[in-house]
Amino acid sequence: MIDQIGLVLLGFVAGILGSMLGLGGGIIVVPILTFFGFTPTLAVSNSLFAAFSNAAGSTISYSRQKRIEYSLGLKLGLLTIPGTILGAYISSDVTPGIFKILFGLILISSAIYIFLRKKIETSEKNLTKQMIVFIIAASFFAGIISSFFGIGGGIVFVPLMVVGIGMTMKKAAPTSQFILLFASLSGIIVHSILGHPDFLQAGLLSAGAFVGGIIGARISLDIKERSLQILVSAIIIIAAIKLFFDSATENLFLIGG
Fold this sequence. Notes:
By secondary structure, the chain is mostly helical. The protein has helices spanning 4-21, 26-35, 40-64, 70-91, 96-116, 129-149, 154-165, 169-193, 199-219, 225-256.
């Protein structure tokens, strides 16, 4: 098991990256906790505490920069809540092997998004009825993956706001962090009712993630994003490969046994 200082540092690093990218820090926290032997439900529920703390710290900084669209964020955030409830209940029954495969696929998707996010085009959009229905469905789905994987759902919301709604990337990532307040908090409540988290571990992760979220939001205006994209994408892909390998090894062991 990772020690207490390690949990704080993990939350801090994940908080910086999650804040800058608008994805939440779960894409870093969950695979690392899994590598240290945490069960899927424990890793996910602990990560959601860090995601909420990270979103709170980021939102404080981004609000001062006036980069959050509150009206849209509130609507999308509330739409995630039914999905987060469902995701928490589903996560109770998933086996570690299946979870690692599914999370590996989420990581690959995240890496592709991070690497290509500058190429996503922003343009004014007229919201049709079909797009509104799609946005509602996407928000529900984002809630499910937020609570099931402990990642917050930013991988859905940032592209949705940029491509589907026409928001600039400069405002999409901050608004995504505001949305994650709702998605992660509702997930925390349900996971806690189900008895999944370790509150001491979750608190240590949250402390690091809160500070990391504030710092990440501040330096997001100055850092060379391309270098960050390459670094984070590489780390995520390596983590995904490790998850696939671990899952395959566990399945072979079970077959051999």
